[in-house]
Amino acid sequence: MGGKDYLSGGPYDPVSGEEALVVAGPIRPLMRKPKYLVLCTGGTVRSTTVAHILKYEYEYDALAASLERNTIATLHMLCGWADHIIVVEDKHLEQMQRELPQYLSKTRLFPIGKDIWRMSLHPDLLKRIEELDLDTFLIS
Length: 140
Prior knowledge:
By secondary structure, the chain is an alpha/beta fold. The protein folds into two domains: 1-30, no CATH class; 35-139, Rossmann fold (3-Layer(aba) Sandwich). It is 34% helix and 21% strand. A four-stranded parallel sheet has the order 6-5-7-8, with helices on both faces. A two-stranded antiparallel sheet has the order 1-2.
């Protein structure tokens, strides 16, 4: 039988340590959502747009971040948190190989290319993501 997590205020399963959902009876662990980290140069346009789609259309846990504006310690923390890491340019994959090679096994390139949109959720950026077929990318 589960108890109350006094730190977060929500119920948890003390055996598995997972969050739990109370549904007219015993506590049942929630299905864990995949955690995605999307990285790009500035962390404000391409990665934010992809993370937004992952979070609000796929209902995954997703964060966007900058490879240039975050410290290596922050990137280590974020990469450690993520189940899957998406980079949007070849140069980002090369940077991961140089600076964060321990996370390469969970890193994949979704080749959006250079930022020509300069605005998150730009209609042409959304079109580019659709052309690249994010659905297929996620299941392959």
